[in-house]
């Protein structure tokens, strides 16, 4: 008899999720999985509910219906205390970066360590410097956020998100407000972190260049039907999604046919019609 090893359990499993603000439905019936070590992109047009889905995954917005399983645990079904403990295993970088302007970079990164660990101030300082070096900011420990560029502020925000060695990193529009070169450097950093630490990374973004260069898995949310209309590798969705809207969005408004001749989808459709 052959021994078949079952596939590893996904890191995050979302099943039948509905999200609402009051009676206003944001998204419904979302079912998708995020594998361990994935760089998973939540994408879709403006206002479709990407940030709201992220908020639900990080514990800030309870679902109206459905389940979010993180590892072995039903995240929203768990007691609040257990959920809060799980949330300490998440590192979050919000859109604004949100560093404290009156604190140095080392103090910003050290803040969660002071709050959630028993480390001495000297150890916190050393660990903060190490986290800053991971994001290429060695030597900037004593700088204030206003003294460094926007791209460096984002890096410092990532160092702070990584302070407690999270299992999952969540980024909301990490490249918002950055020029294309800083944005590319940030993508490189995200990939480096994923490769060196194996952290699962979930990102809300509609920057196409980032989506294709760093994402290996994704979900595509539709604002009209208010549900997901695609899941999978973004490059494959760009070229082969059976949904025209998904292909158009990922080809920057151009259909695949416009760019490079008929897509395999339309070839298949043409073959089927003959
Ligand atoms: N706290 C809230 N209360 C009520 N409605 C909200 C709240 N936050 C967001 N919304 C609404 O929910 C919808 C989805 O918002 P959300 O920010 O999740 O979308 P998004 O896809 O991330 O948008 P964008 O791409 O513009 O950042 C929008 O119509 C927004 O106005």
From TrEMBL:
<dbReference type="InterPro" id="IPR027417">
    <property type="entry name" value="P-loop_NTPase"/>
</dbReference>
<keyword id="KW-0813">Transport</keyword>
<protein>
    <submittedName>
        <fullName>ATP-binding cassette domain-containing protein</fullName>
    </submittedName>
</protein>
<dbReference type="InterPro" id="IPR017871">
    <property type="entry name" value="ABC_transporter-like_CS"/>
</dbReference>
<dbReference type="GO" id="GO:0005524">
    <property type="term" value="F:ATP binding"/>
</dbReference>
<feature type="compositionally biased region" description="Basic and acidic residues">
    <location>
        <begin position="236"/>
        <end position="260"/>
    </location>
</feature>
<keyword id="KW-0067">ATP-binding</keyword>
<dbReference type="InterPro" id="IPR003439">
    <property type="entry name" value="ABC_transporter-like_ATP-bd"/>
</dbReference>
<feature type="domain" description="ABC transporter">
    <location>
        <begin position="12"/>
        <end position="250"/>
    </location>
</feature>
<dbReference type="Pfam" id="PF00005">
    <property type="entry name" value="ABC_tran"/>
</dbReference>
<keyword id="KW-0547">Nucleotide-binding</keyword>
<dbReference type="GO" id="GO:0016887">
    <property type="term" value="F:ATP hydrolysis activity"/>
</dbReference>
<dbReference type="InterPro" id="IPR003593">
    <property type="entry name" value="AAA+_ATPase"/>
</dbReference>
<feature type="region of interest" description="Disordered">
    <location>
        <begin position="232"/>
        <end position="274"/>
    </location>
</feature>
């Amino acid at each position: 008899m052959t021994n078949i090893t079952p596939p590893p359990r996904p890191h995050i499993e979302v099943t039948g999720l509905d999200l609402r603000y009051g009676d206003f439905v944001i998204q419904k019936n979302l079912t998708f999985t995020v594998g361990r070590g994935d760089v998973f992109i939540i994408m879709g047009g403006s206002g479709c509910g990407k940030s709201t889905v992220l908020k639900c995954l990080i514990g800030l917005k309870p679902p109206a219906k459905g389940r979010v399983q993180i590892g072995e645990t039903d995240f929203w079904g768990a007691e609040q205390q257990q959920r809060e403990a799980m949330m300490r295993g998440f590192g979050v970088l919000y859109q604004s970066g949100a560093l404290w302007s009156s604190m140095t970079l080392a103090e910003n990164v050290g803040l969660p360590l002071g709050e959630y660990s028993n480390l001495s101030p000297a150890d916190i300082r050393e660990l903060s410097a190490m986290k800053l070096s991971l994001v290429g900011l060695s030597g900037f420990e004593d700088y204030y956020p206003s003294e460094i560029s926007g791209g460096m502020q984002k890096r410092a925000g990532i160092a702070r998100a990584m302070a407690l060695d999270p299992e999952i990193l969540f980024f909301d529009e990490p490249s918002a407000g950055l020029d294309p070169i800083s944005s590319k450097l940030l993508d490189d950093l995200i990939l480096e972190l994923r490769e060196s630490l194996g952290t699962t990374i979930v990102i809300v973004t509609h920057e196409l260049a980032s989506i294709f260069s760093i994402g290996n898995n994704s979900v595509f949310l539709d604002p009209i039907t208010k549900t997901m209309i695609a899941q999978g590798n973004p490059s494959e969705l760009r070229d082969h999604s059976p949904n025209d809207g998904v292909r158009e969005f990922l080809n920057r408004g151009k259909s695949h046919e416009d760019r490079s001749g008929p897509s395999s989808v339309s070839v298949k459709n043409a073959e089927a019609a003959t």
